[in-house]
Amino acid sequence: xxxxxxxxxxxxxxxxxxxxxxxxxxxxxxxxxxxxxxxxxxxxxxxxxxxxxxxxxxxxxxxxxxxxxxxxxxxxxxxxxxxxxxxxxxxxxxxxxxxxxxxxxxxxxxxxxxxxxxxxxxxxxxxxxxxxxxxxxxxxxxxxxxxxxxxxxxxxxxxxxxxxxxxxxxxxxxxxxx
Length: 178
Ligand SMILES: [Zn+2]
Hints:
The protein is of the alpha+beta class. The protein has three helices and seven strands.
C-alpha cells in the first residue's frame, strides 16, 4: 500500500538512511542537503523524498539520541532469541542495572464498542549490552518477558549531556524547552 503523499517530508527515512554507514543516500551538513552518492564519486541531490513524496527537509534536526544501525538492531534482536520469561532474562544477562516498577505503559484506545484499557509493565533495564541502546525487558504479571531497545541519550548539540532519566515518557519526541 502506498503511503499518503506529503507536501513536506517528515517521515525521517532520509535521515535514517543517511545514518547507515553503507547507504547510498548521504547528507551534506555544510549544504544541508541529502544526496545520492554514486560509486564513481557523483552526487545527485534529492529534492523529494522517495518514500513519502514530500519535499526534502530544510534542515536536519540533530538527534539527541544515538543512532541504532540496522546491523545493531539485528544484533540486539538476536540477543532476544529464546527469551520469553523473566527467569530466562536473568539467567542470560544477570541482574539488571535498573528495575522499574512501572517501566512501560501500553494504552489500547476505545474501539468498535470496546472500552479503552491500559497495561503497565515492570521493566528490567540493561545498560551495557549495547553502546547505542539500553536493552529493556518488559515483564507482564505472568512473568512473561518482552525485549525492547531504546536509543541512548547523547546530549544536546553543545555536547552537554543532559541527564534525562531513561525511558521517560517523552523519550523519542521533541523535548519541550521551557
Ligand atoms: Zn519522507
